[in-house]
Amino acid sequence: MRLGQTSLLYFSSKIFASFLGALATVYIARILGSEPLGVYNLVIGLVSWFAILGRVGVSKAIAKRVSEGSDKGEYVVAGTIVILFMFLFATAVLVFFRDQIVGYVGYPATGYIIFILFVVLLNGLVDSLLTGLHLVHISGVLSPLRTGGRALAQVSLIIAGVSTASLFIGHIVGYLAAIGIGSYYVMRNIPDLSRPDQDHFGDLFDFAKFSWLGSLQSRMFSYTDIIVLGFFVSSGLVGVYAVAWNVAHFFILFSGALSTTLFPEMSSISTQNDSQAVGRIVEQSLSFGGLFLIPGFLGGAIIGERVLRIYGPEFPKGVTILTLLILANLFMGYQDQLLNTLNAVNHPELAFRVNIVFVGSNLSLNVVLVYLYGWIGAAIATTVSVAISLALAYWHVNSVIEFNLPVDEISKQWFAAILMSGVVYGGLWIESTYRILHHNVATVLLLVGIGASVYLICLFGISAEFRETVKRNVPIDMSVSR
Length: 482
What we know:
By secondary structure, this protein is mainly α. The protein has 19 helices and no strands. The protein has one domain. The protein starts with a helix and ends in a 9-residue tail after the last helix.
């Protein structure tokens, strides 16, 4: 029950953070247009790639070693030293290639990239410590703080007359706010910091030498298509694609909350050699990994154009991109649970194999398909590469842990989502035919509310597992007295 409540709290925090970010993005898109958004997302994409040089899987390794319970202070110091060293290396690379970076981005952003890289790495360190200390709920609460601080700063600077630079400055401000509060909770719960020895660095390296590719995989899933598009299409189209991506990524938040919450628990259980208990957690994570992604995929295909219209008249042309990217996130939602399992049970070498397949296929497919078909090719490349790596991840997890694929539960989610789709499509047809609301935002909110209600009520009625999970984790008594 505690795991479910922690996941729910983490997910709720992510939802709130995403909502704040979406509001800010709508405002930015309407005031500045798609081109500054494109420049901003190119910069964030570059930062995400350079963050790999700074992290090299160390953040994940810190979370793993700290969650195991011994020598926590030593691992914290060792990980911090490695991350700072790699930040200096990444900064040197950025300075050396600053002219090429300016030419690619189309904006003098090298200094901003360095500052954003620093706060991203520091935030990653704090998040990994919170995860390793079983304080995932604190990490989740920091997410809306970070996003809200960023949004507030960006909007305030735009109102003050600052243009593209406001997006970068606001990004830094949001991260600094989250880092400050997160560090406070880390220092309260971490044992005394101690000088690490060579073995501590070695333990981090043994895990990180495989898990670094997982960090790269995550960054490539989010930004490879955007980075490649920067070479072939205008900043305006990159901005439209980035908005579609942000909307699509909203639906994977619950899956991410599950994997983040379950990692320290599976890691701790795995040290006790209780593979049966780990197998049960894997089944539960897969049962709910697509809980919101499945209806999100079908709903996005129906009202995606209306959703993108909220951002401005130039954004609805990305509706096909949006549908494909939601599908990619659906595949990734399940893959996240499987890779999380492999890392938690100390098989990062298997996760490495899955990630290297994804990295290779994603990069090669993006280059080829973007060159041939433009931004549609980017969305197709991302979706296909995730599907391939998902199949491989399932094969590896099945080889090390005995578990049953929850086909029955997933089928019930699809049934409820299809029923929801019929209701939403009917509502959209009625509104389009009779023009009842005459307001696009109101129409979207109404259809989303109706669709979500139909889906959850239907699923609650047909799925005993979903009913029991809800009853165990809601903070009220749902039993019926007789």
